[in-house]
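For reproducibility, we list the full input for the NDP complex.
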Amino acid sequence: MGKCMIIGCGGVASVAIHKCCQNSDVFEGIMIASRTKSKCDALKEKLQPTTKTVIETAQVNADNTDELIALINSYKPDVVLNLALPYQDLTIMDACLATKTHYVDTANYEPLDTAKFEYKWQWAYREKFEKAGITALLGSGFDPGVTGVFSAYAMKHEFDEINYIDILDCNGGDHGYPFATNFNPEINIREVSAKGSYIQDGKWIETEPMEIKRVYNFKGVGEKDMYLLHHEELESLALNIKGIKRIRFFMTFGQSYLTHLKCLENVGMTSIEPIMYEGKEIVPLQFLKAVLPDPASLGPRTVGKTNIGCIFRGKKDGKDKTYYLYNICDHQECYKEVGSQAVSYTTGVPAMIGAMMIMTGTWKKAGVYNIEEFDPDPFMEALNKWGLPWEEDFNPVLVD
Ligand code: NDP
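The corresponding predicted structure, in tokenized form, follows.
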């Protein structure tokens, strides 16, 4: 069917690459291009004997648009799948525009120095992508990603209007370390140490970090504490889903994680302000990342399950209705299949599916779009096929 260039070769990319290689009919060729080429080569060595997908590798600095343009021109992919960090979104989008290549990512652009998740920078590219006749699919991970597909599916099949959405992200996994993050520590800590927020009646309501706590009993996991966070898909879903009055995002955290985080925060280790250390400028949070366990190393040690989904409340045929769509994923099953834990798995699988939707022309619209703006049905079908089956509950316990 076609060729895909995958940028980045970390936790999420590794899963997406495994999945592309399982799906050789669509992904005839992939190029893995990242900052550290040896990681790309190691993955190629492991996977090439197992797949018909032809794997190539390259070194690239994705902060440099010219380098990206040269690489895209030499490989000529149908789609670029950006699985580097959110800081690279705009340089990669610029390179896609210059080469008229479709673009897919899993996280919205964030400037290095502000820790603020907003779509405004990427939405500003709408007209340029439309004119170039190419698609940018934003946020094709799990959250954002599957949560948007779930919302579009609920809207299409179950509701006339959706008034309330609660997105619940539960990781019931245990890696045995007192403190480690399940994906890129810098991105993760920036996310959880920021102020919380949710949207009510069209306005953002801000909370202190971790101010709002609820307890929820998750199927497959059990009872967990969860906290309200700011999350990027709230912004797009509030605009794209009809009738929204309130939309919130909750994530579970264990007490040990929160105690360590508080301590690290109190001593200044989570700061993104550069400081001088022995004559060299360092960013405390980047230094912390260097001493924490590599998320990729958590795979063999993590046991338990994740349960991520959305509880919807709204109206159907004039009557009140509630509906819960979720996926349960087992850390050890993921590790057996692709050598990664479930947090990378639940992001890498939808990343492959998003790229597949664009490569096969199943989703075809020129411009910049969030995932819930496309027909959810083929994506929902692909989730069942490619390892993230979903479950539904028509009488869920609600979050107050
Ligand atoms: P990792 O840190 O494991 O991987 C990032 C990869 O990008 C690394 O291989 C890194 O290279 C590479 N990279 C970083 N900077 C550059 C650069 N300038 N040029 C080229 N390559 C670069 O992160 P994750 O895999 O955990 O996360 C990947 C993305 O997925 C992030 O954007 C994250 O926010 C997103 N995400 C989305 C989720 C969702 O549900 N939507 C959930 C989890 C993550 P090197 O190997 O040299 O370090």
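Residues 8-13, 34-36, 39, 60-63, 83-86, 88, 106-107, 141-145, 183-184, 187, 295, 347 surround NDP (CB under 6 Å). The chain has 14 helices and 18 strands. Both points were considered when choosing residues for closer inspection.
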